[in-house]
Write a structure and sequence with these properties.
The chain is α+β, with helices and mostly antiparallel strands and about 290 residues long. The protein has six helices and eleven strands. The protein is elongated.
């Protein structure tokens, strides 16, 4: 059996699209990376292929960079999530926004386990593609699908420069102690007890029915005020009638005891509202004008 070889080739469709994009000053927009198991065995891809032999997963491109080995080589990275797996990776391909397979590669057998197997589930895959004109290719990377592998997280956690700006701005222990012991910012237990006592007193005061009348009490007061106003009106009318009777009695007394045979007062007034006195004096008690 001949020795196995591995590598990436640009498909005929990919060459056609990249050439057309170069001539028309456009770009081929690559958005996805697909992974397959090669149909269960190693094989050599051909430029005429338009799809993987047996695709198991396809996802958004997570990262793109120019390879350090060559300015014409592009490294395309995608992360297969932890809940996908249970097969062997033997092939990869990249696709544009119209679903065209631009390049394909075969890979050494790589087991893609799932997280339930107890191993690290996610796997980061890098596909290298070499083209003569990298400016004719563009990549759409969705930040929401970029997944950090456990290796990335470990390197981040052990990096002395990770979150350096946060450590540089960390609070000094003395500053923290001063803040904690600042009685203007934090109340002590005694003050908090006073607050609780005051709040309890306010609640008790509010619920005290001796100090605060009920709605029924207020309603009875309004009824009593209405009755009192009506009684006052009746009393005023009775007083007016009494004054009228007293005036007539005085006329009789004048006729009997003062030799007055006529009635010098033909008109009695409750008040002088609307009356202009030209001559005489208003006798408020007897409700008459006397000359």
């Amino acid at each position: 059996m001949s020795e196995k070889t591995f590598g990436t080739i640009v498909t005929n469709k990919g060459i056609e699209l990249i050439t057309s994009a170069t001539l028309e000053e456009k770009k081929v927009n690559i958005i996805e990376l697909g992974v397959g198991d090669g149909g269960g065995a190693y094989y050599q891809p051909t430029p005429s292929m338009t799809e993987l032999k047996h695709e198991n997963w396809r996802g958004a491109v997570g990262n793109v960079s120019i390879s350090e080995q060559s300015p014409n080589m592009i490294d395309i990275v995608a992360v297969v999530p932890s809940d996908v797996g249970g097969w062997t990776i033997r092939e990869m391909a990249i696709f544009d926004n119209l679903g065209n397979m631009i390049a394909i590669c075969n890979t050494p057998d790589t087991e893609k386990v799932i997280i339930t197997s107890g191993a690290a589930g996610e796997i980061e895959l890098t596909m290298h593609i070499e083209v003569s004109n990298t400016e004719s290719i563009t990549f759409t990377v969705d930040p929401s699908v970029v997944t950090a592998t456990k290796k990335d997280l470990k390197e981040h956690n052990t990096s002395p420069s990770a979150h350096k700006n946060l450590f540089d701005n960390k609070a000094d222990v003395v500053d923290l102690n001063n803040h904690i012991n600042n009685t203007e910012i934090h109340v002590n237990a005694e003050t908090m007890g006073n607050y609780n006592t005051a709040i309890a007193g306010l609640i008790a005061h509010k619920e005290n029915e001796i100090r605060h009348v009920t709605a029924e009490d207020k309603a009875s007061w309004n009824t009593a005020a209405t009755v009192a106003a009506e009684a006052l009106n009746v009393a005023q009318q009775a007083s007016n009638k009494l004054n009228e009777a007293l005036s007539r009695l005085a006329q009789v007394e004048d006729g009997l005891y003062s030799n007055i045979t006529g009635n010098p007062f033909n008109i009695l007034f409750n008040n002088l509202e609307g009356v202009v006195i030209k001559k005489g004096v208003w006798n408020k008690e007897k409700q008459r004008i006397e000359c």
